[in-house]
Amino acid sequence: MEYRNLGASGLKVSTLCLGTMTFGEADAQSFMHKIGCDEPTSFSIMNKALDAGINFFDTADVYGQDGLTERVIGRWFEQDKRRDDVVLATKFRFRMGEGPNGTGASRLRITRAVEASLRRLKTDRVDLYQIHMQDIETPEEETLRALDDLVRQGKVLYIGASNYAAYRLVESLWASARARTERFVALQAQYSLVVRDLEREHVSVCTRHGLGILPWSPLAGGFLTGKYRKEQPPPAGSRLAKWEDRMKGFDTPRHWRILAALDAVAAEHGATPAQVALAWLLRKPGVTSVIFGARSLAQLDDNVKAAALASALREGDVQRLDEASAFELGYPYEFIRRIQGRW
User: What's the CA dihedral at 251, 254, 256, 258 to 10 degrees?
Assistant: First the structure.
């Protein structure tokens, strides 16, 4: 397993990050109903991930239902006593309570959210505390000052952002510099062969300002695992079998072109399409660690092999996948690229 600095910080994290959204069996009211794994399986996955060298786990207060996933991790910490082996990341922002202050990124909300997460996780600190999405109704300075206070108190060690617009991310970095508060060291964002919009502006922002990129949904909800085929129904029990509308959105020439390129590269390396999709991301500028989910030990074993595959991919492999997944940049990016060759 390779370890990289998280952005410009000194924190070392594994190039693969264990995403825990599927941990715990959510009831019918949750969008994760019948998609997660039970608690014993979750414990086994976390133990095996650590044994494989994955020291970076990501969760959020809203994962599962009513903090379910955080509670599962907390019980695992309590049972297996491996808290100090883990760089633990969690997130706040979305609704976790009733009333006008049950959501958002105000000082009041952040203070309540971190205390609740610490209780559920049965720990004294969060290693990376991330705002799950920008809050356009709260001044960024207020959010940053509240997070800075948590760092001073030792309840949080590093702070990060997720699902931010590029303009807001830059404004946040400038606000941190002006007020001399803690600054974001990472951006967690959707990024895959299917979704490459991050390359328009966010990648440049992160590489120039020292934020490590943490891609989520690197397998596009399972589409890039190789189990989905043109003109064939999704496998029974798969995530996209449940989310039919999303599966319909994948039925385009571009998506099938991506799968064809994945299959070809995977065959040449004796790998699976999922491993190649993860390894491709690890070759992209600014990416520190790729967040992947696992509902079984078999899925974990398969994905872990992507760490070694990243260094084995040839430049031609990366270029072939880039070309197959090419997307419309739009204005002004296409205009700039036509004149200068890049943007």
Answer: -140
**What DSSP letter does each residue of 78-116 carry, written as one string?**
HHH--GGG-EEEEEE-S--SSSTTSSS-SHHHHHHHHHH
Contacts of range 138-144, beta carbons closer than 8 Å, 24 or more positions apart: 138/104, 138/105, 138/106, 140/168, 140/171, 140/172, 140/175, 141/175, 141/179, 142/105, 142/106, 142/107, 143/105, 143/106, 143/107, 143/110, 144/172, 144/175, 144/176, 144/179, 144/181, 144/182, 144/183
What predicted TM-score, i.e. pTM, was given to this entire model?
Answer: 0.94
Domains and CATH numbers, the chain: 3-340 (3.20.20.100)
Give yes or no: 63 in active site: yes
Residue by residue, DSSP assigns 2-46 as -EEESTTSS-EEESEEEE-TTBS---TTSTTTTTSB-HHHHHHHH
pLDDT category at 275 given cuts 50, 70, 90 is very high
311 Cβ partners below 8 Å, 6+ apart?
2
Out of 3, 63, 167, 331, which one is annotated catalytic? 63
